[in-house]
């Protein structure tokens, strides 16, 4: 194979679907494809996915990629990433025992309260995080209390990307960054903590081997080759969590780089040269050895847009299909008809409780300020502005920690919307760079190339391959208006939060 036809493949398992991206060794995007999968919400606050859906979505996405003219026979290496915290419980034959409890699930509130009451300081000192329903540890404690037979039958645990990679290679392992998303990991000693695992009634032996994100973990099996079209024997690189690889693939590889993410969830991540554990943020090591990043995150960002589309926009979806465009483009057109501030309508995006800065599972989403004169465009614009305000709320924690920020990269599916990108830029009142493609699957493709030696190291891969699509500068007048509106947004939150906590 010539260098000119070498393909690096990144496969991302996000909260809402699988995306595959094929690039060449210069970072040029050769093609991408995506397939959504179902999240099951059987009870209020619950969120589960079927592991079989991830593999099926990947296979379909790869076939769609091939149909676009990408020659999968030229794949030199592939790597995976996925949403973190999500434990796949497996029996002795490596078969899932139940649906996977997702990071957005809120059922373990009581378990978190108990952990905080009895072990908060010790957990934070060991794992650099505070217990919340996002983490695997309280999720497993809930299973211990409510489905004890499932835990007794659990012989192996993998996580989203690791489970799919096992289906492809037969090799079971996870990486250190993914492990940090469980609350079972000893940060200082870079290993599993038997003591933390035992809090959930888990035998530490069920936890997977720990490797580095760029380690090669086997190759594509004959069965997986038949399912995917990728040649048997193609090297498979471990990969890591979607958040880590997004930061990396978007170009955030130096201290002071900041990621604002408009994906299913929303993140504000700041890169640092050392760890900065903080009770109301998350702390992870970086793909770049020796670096770290601090996470402040909202549970629902582009998820809100998708929810609104699916619930209220049948006409727009039908029209978009006829026009051959994405329905979100039509929603943006509606939003553009509404002025800044959406004629007084506010949206708080708490569809699944909330993480930063409130860490309150009781919060619910709301539209406020509606009037008989309110239009659909007002409601859509309020949704876009509300998510931006929520991200600015997250950014407040970064300011509170006094972490230096030198530049902002805006990533995620929402960044493709010029309107939404401009709103975020004005709300933050800071210049924003939008990388291309700047998503997790691109970062995973770079890791694939690094793992098989096509780049000198992880940083070299980014410097050679990253492209900036556009740079946006805030408008001072609009920024001032949004600053005033943000204060109202906060006041509405403060007024409603106690109501949602009432039993």
Quick structural summary:
This protein is α+β, with helices and mostly antiparallel strands and 503 residues long.
Written account of the structure:
With 503 residues, the chain is an alpha+beta fold. The protein has two domains: 3-251 and 438-468, 2-Layer Sandwich (Nucleotidyltransferase, domain 5), CATH 3.30.420; 298-436 and 473-501, Nucleotidyltransferase, domain 5, CATH 3.30.420. It contains 17 helices and 23 strands. The chain has helices at 51-67, 109-127, 136-146, 148-153, 160-169, 176-180, 194-199, 222-228, 242-249, 302-312, 314-323, 327-336, 376-401, 418-428, 440-451, 458-465, 476-501, and strands spanning 7-13, 17-23, 29-36, 48-49, 75-82, 87-90, 100-101, 156-159, 174-175, 185-186, 191-192, 210-211, 216-219, 235-241, 257-262, 266-272, 282-285, 292-298, 346-348, 366-368, 407-411, 432-436, 467-472. The protein has a six-stranded mixed beta sheet. It has a five-stranded mixed beta sheet with strand order 17-18-16-15-21, with helices on both faces. α10 packs across α11 (314-323), α10 (302-312) packs antiparallel against α13 and α13 (376-401) crosses α14 (418-428). The mean pLDDT is 96.
